[in-house]
Design goal:
Oligomer: single chain
Radius of gyration: 29 Å
Number of helices: 17
Number of domains: 3
Number of strands: 9
Strand content: 5-15%
Largest sheet: 9 strands, mixed
Structural class: alpha/beta
Order of helices and strands: HEEEEEHEHHHEHHHEEHHHHHHHHH
């Protein structure tokens, strides 16, 4: 830490013991340079005491400078439970779970810069949010480590657990976790201590954690080169964590499901169509993220249009036209895929008004007739069979009442249609 940073931290700590954080000016993000691929990183200030205010700095970095950083993966939690931290000496509101994560990180790795979405993205700037979310996959891939924060609540299980007592997996390499060893020494080392202990209850709670159901963490976990899992007071590698889970809860859910996705990331199975189908039940607060949250992970979704200003029906249209224009859908899959995307975006309770609702912007009337040159994504090819045709249009209600002749003509036409129907059904 520089001398200036230390002096500023000391002055902040002294002043805030006597004054509320609310007296400070609210933090506002400085705009990012739109001419280069760049982002912000968080530098957490060290603290002498546990109750010192959480303070950090935001720095702008260009990807071309090859910055070294770690990326945080966590649940945002309830927005109603807000805590205040200091960013560049000004107050900034964060959720309780992120506040706990920052406390944990502050005591673990001084001078480590982090990418944290709630801080590094100006959530009030939709255009910046669109640009940064397109980079999410690259950010988590370029991070030296993705830090998974599962929460402070696991302290309740850890009063009688030391990190050295937990089930351990064999040593791992930096690239990928190795398969469990089978020699006698490792088997003894991997033995499960205290089958009825707090450790087993803790793992049960870990596997049921709502974190694993979040949609965004699919991309964050799968893209990561290395993962550190933190919960309560403990931290361990992904390999150790998944081995711990397997020893206590080998049913394949939660983290083990994501571990399988990590192993499949290079076999070409991560298509947008498959990802949307596989993760239909994944949870997110923003319906648009049901699509946008998986685009960065899909091998065939480069160039997908992401725009949070668009309505749900516009995003449905974008998705269908993108898939159709790239030839990513078979003709037989069009209808079912359209239904899937509609369910993801709108569920079953969303009415037409909610689907189309967005800030009004005047625009030209769309062309009703589309010329198809074989490459227009707005033209969907679908096989069809002629089941019938309109042979006659009957009179209106007013005409039927006023003109008996028109009514008789309509009755005659109905009789002709009925006779034709009988011939067909009787095979004549």
């Amino acid at each position: 830490m520089s001398a200036n940073q230390a002096r500023r931290r000391d002055s902040l700590g002294t002043s805030l013991k006597d004054n509320s954080l609310t007296v400070l000016e609210e933090f506002r993000h400085h705009p990012l340079d739109t001419g280069v691929d760049c982002t912000r990183l968080v530098q957490i200030h060290a603290a002498r005491n546990e109750d010192d205010p959480l303070a950090c700095d935001l720095v702008h970095v260009a990807f071309g400078a090859r910055p070294k950083f770690e990326a945080l993966s966590y649940r945002w939690g309830d927005n109603d439970d807000q805590k205040t931290i200091l960013v560049d000496g000004k107050r900034f509101g964060v959720g309780k779970n992120l506040w706990d994560a920052l406390h944990f990180l502050r005591g673990r790795a001084e001078n480590t810069p982090y990418w944290i979405d709630a801080l590094c993205i100006n959530q009030r700037d939709t255009e910046e949010r669109n640009r940064q979310l397109r980079m999410m996959g690259h950010i988590y891939f370029r991070a030296s480590t993705v830090v998974v924060w599962l929460g402070r609540k696991y302290l309740q299980f850890q009063s009688d657990i030391e990190e050295s007592q937990l089930v351990r997996s064999p040593s791992t390499t930096k690239a990928e976790p190795s398969a469990p060893s089978t020699d006698g020494q490792d088997q003894a080392h991997n033995a499960v201590p205290g089958e009825g202990s707090s450790e087993r209850e803790m793992v049960k709670e870990l596997c049921a954690d709502g974190y694993w159901n979040r949609l965004w963490i699919i991309q964050e976990i799968v893209q990561a080169r290395q993962i550190k899992v933190c919960f309560g007071k403990l931290a361990m590698t992904w390999a150790h964590f998944t081995h711990l889970v397997t020893m206590h809860n080998p049913d394949g859910g939660g983290p083990l499901r994501l571990d399988r996705h990590r192993k499949e990331r290079y076999n070409g199975s991560h298509t947008l169509q498959k990802l949307l189908g596989d993760h239909e039940a994944a949870e997110c607060k923003e319906p648009k993220d049901k699509i946008y949250g998986l685009v960065g992970l899909a091998a065939d979704a480069h160039g997908f249009p992401m725009d949070y200003n668009k309505s749900l029906i516009e995003i449905w249209t974008d998705t269908m036209e993108f898939m159709n224009g790239r030839g990513l859908l078979l003709e037989s899959e069009l209808v079912e895929f359209g239904k899937l995307v509609k369910r993801l975006l709108m569920g079953t309770q969303c009415g037409p008004l909610q689907q189309a609702l967005r800030p009004y912007q005047p625009e030209k009337d769309p062309t009703l007739v589309i010329e198809d040159d074989g490459r227009n994504p707005k033209v969907f090819e679908q096989s069809a069979f002629l089941l019938g045709y309109v042979s006659h249009v009957g009179p209106s209600t007013t005409e039927s009442i006023a003109s008996l002749q028109k009514l008789d003509e309509w009755a005659g036409e109905v009789q002709k249609i009925w006779q034709e129907f009988e011939k067909i059904t009787q095979g004549v």
